[in-house]
Task: structure prediction
Amino acid sequence: MSSFKSFLRSGHAPTLFAAFFYFMFSCCIWVLNGAMAPFISEAFELNAAQKGLMLSIPIIAGALMRFPLGILSQYIGRKNATLVEMGLIAVAMLFGFFMVHSFNDLLAMGVLLGIAGASFGVALSLGSGSFPPQHKGLAMGLVGAGNVGTALSVLVAPPLAQWLGWQAVYGVAAVAILVPMAVMVLFAQEPPDVDSHASMREHVACLFEKDGWAFSLIYGITFGGFIGLTTFLPSYYHDQFGVSKVQAGQLTMLAAFMGAAVRVMGGWISDRWGGVNTLTLVLVVSAVSLALIGLSSSSLAITTLLLMVCFAALGAGNGALFQLVPLRWPTTTAVAGSMIGEIGALGGGLVPNAMGLSKQYLGTYMWGFMLFAVLALVMLGVMRVMQIRWTRTWAEKGGRARSVPTGPADEGDRPVRPLRRSAGR
Result:
């Protein structure tokens, strides 16, 4: 407890809380269509491929909006950027309440839900910006635990949809977003960790580096898997096992809550054990559990237990990867995080599409799970090769923070290679 208090004193705790609260509400709204998918599918009589398309659009739209929001935050400040975004979310929810009357309107609503999905990079940078490097992994893990909003969405939205009608849930969300806006105004402050005089080239340098793309693809497995599966599972439970719409949301909540909760632990473990070591274990567990889920589609209990294991691994992986980001890009964490979040979250759009197409044309969801398991193993191999250079330049062995930070070189935030230690030390 004393160490946690020391952690809170090392940064600005009210901003950390405001960033978490903002990200939690954003995640809740981002996956609304997934949470209400059984109701929406029934209303519009959607087939498996149409369901996959409907579920993937908010994820893809959110991914594409992340980097522009990160750039905006560099010029108007992260706190102001969150307020602009939440205002746009409120307008989008009103569109959903008044204007969604056809499948095309529903797809347009999916694009607008993506506004909520853009929050990730700015939320993490805002919450962790006042904390020192050795605590950023835990700070980012705590903010990232706002992913629990996805669990709240699949838990709360189905009963609301059953009571008020699924379209009325958008109206409830339009009012609810005013709460995190008030918290942000009252408690958050702009962190001091960004050089406001940095050039545009310095801000976007991570876009042109191999490390940025490696992190993005790994994140496509961890966070992409988390958000894609969370969006898809209410439909999967309802269609595959015949449970009620509300029960499908409750079962999804068990897995989503596990992933969100363990994210904090992933950041904390990575601060001590190293992000690379943690991600190695994460990708192995994810691949094995995904393959077993595909093979256990006849058992509701086994599937639910395996999904909880899988989500725990994916959640820990999200925390682990973003323990590494501020080490690699110490002065442009917001933009680097947004870019990695943008490219990585696109992996989430692959999940419901792959599942829908697998069911539509192959008669089973199994091959969708198998595809994602194979991709996890591929990214494990890529990371193990690249980490050899990472631990020689900007991180300690295993991916821990260096005790003495190194300065940026000419290209982006690439750290200067430290002097070799003498044999006697």
About this structure: Residues 405-425 have pLDDT under 50 and may be disordered. The chain has one domain: 14-187+202-393.
